[in-house]
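User: For my dataset I need records formatted as: sequence, then structure tokens, nothing else. Please produce one.
Assistant:
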Amino acid sequence: MSRFNDFNNPQVAALPAHLKQFIVDQNYAHYTPVDHAVWRYVMRQNYSYLKDVAYYPYIPGLQKAGLTIEKIPDLQDMNNALAKIGWGAVTVDGFIPPAAFMEYQAYRVLVIAADIRQLKHIEYTPAPDIIHESAGHAPIIADKDYHEYLSYFGSIGAKAMFSAQDFELYEAIRALSILKEMPDADEAEIKKAEELVAWRQDNMGEPSEMALLSRLHWWTVEYGLIGSLDEPKIYGAGLLSSIGESASCMLEEVKKLPYTIDAVKYSYDITKTQPQLFVTSDFQNLIDVLEQFAGTMSFRRGGVYGLQKAIDSKNTCTAVYSSGLQVSGTFTQLEADSGGNVSFLKTTGPTALSLSNKQLKGHGKNYHKDGFSSPVGRLKGFEKPLEDLTIDELKAAGIEAGKNATIQFESGITVSGKVKSMYAEEGKLQLITFTNCTVKDDAGDILFDPAWGVYDMAVGEKITSVFCGAADKDAFLEIAYKSATGTHHPEYDERTRQLHKLYQQVRNRRHKGQDFGYLGNVWLMLQKFHHDDWLCALEILELLDHEDTEPALAAEIRRFLEDKAATEPEYKKLITDGLYLIKHPVEQKLVV
């Protein structure tokens, strides 16, 4: 049964259909006792360490986000807590496309990967998981300045132009992250996937708006530091959720640079620790830099620049006329006049017309199934733009429903035919529909022939904005790009299921008291069948040390862990940090 199909969080309920399609059930019962132990270990380490190096709202933010140390968060509990600060959360299956991720942020909804990292990746995983998304992103959401930045970033990112290369890189990164989280992944396959990611990163061509925005997102939301260069604090979710890199990032060899628009020049590799990090003085600076970058984007610049970006992207895009009319489709052609202004545009394939992001009745992609074309610009001999002419002024110009009209544009394009109807809203004319219409350019070439049917001419002096995606996504029935590569869900063998039972016995003892199971039996089974385990042994030692009832057993387990740390380097830091917390336990206020 779904953990959150009722959408009773206001922010989640407001999501449009094209975003809801990514939501998956959390399936809370699928989390194993080992999964909960991984969560608990990471959260205890985070709480112990991050209280000194994280941006100050982090610790109280955990509570405000509905998180505890003891168990993986239930999505319903998170939504109940986040609703109090105007946010929500949904679970998804691994990486989702960047454009969709950004748009979720604009709707003030956190996207949380339902899966949790394996024990062998407890320090860091390149795959999105519930530790990264909830323990990383959610706590800082409580800070008003930060969540304003996050939602504003989402609204900007949702309009960013992306390329075919962006999709190819996304697929490569998703495939690699899935491989790395598979228990028995073939090393040769992982190496091949890593090489593909590296190749695609190196052969992206000119970075798209989305690629550049993703860099700003990475160096702020994921790996950002705040404060001074000498004494920065962590606020980035990638650092907050990595018990390895949250410590190593503070070392001198990791360069600390002031966060400016120059951060957009730095690419990143999700599989490696970061060689440099950026420090912002405050969250307002993040908004200032974002605003600076947004000024270079197509949705702000419009015109020839924006339309050319739309053509290059080969994706569904929207061009906005100065009248407010929005044309959504795949743009394939533009013409410009001598002044460098757009004079003509054309789409190929299904196209829709909208106003204020709502599709105009009768102008969906089924009606304009073969594309759309229209002039852009001022009429020849008129001081006012066509969209601003009054009914009387239109009549004076010979433009009246039921009568023949000839319209000449300054660009040389001529439209002649019988005016069937006109559409206007909010004091501006947006559309003139002609029958028996001919459209010619200044060279006399036919742009529309009467035999092609009814001609709908968009009205507007300029193209003021161009952005990726349809204006009315749900009416356009826009199915956002979804990967065909599914995340890995393991099938546990009998040996692993028995290990889960041992972890559960320790968990029961911690929650239900001293009489609930003898830890010595758990330890014997671990030694006999799971000698490679360290986390369950650590949890047993923690309980024994706290209860101070079986000193001989505690000493035996401690020797085992110390020997493992000394002889197996990959466990040294994990075990040493775990032993430290046994002697210096975390405060209890987040345990319940």
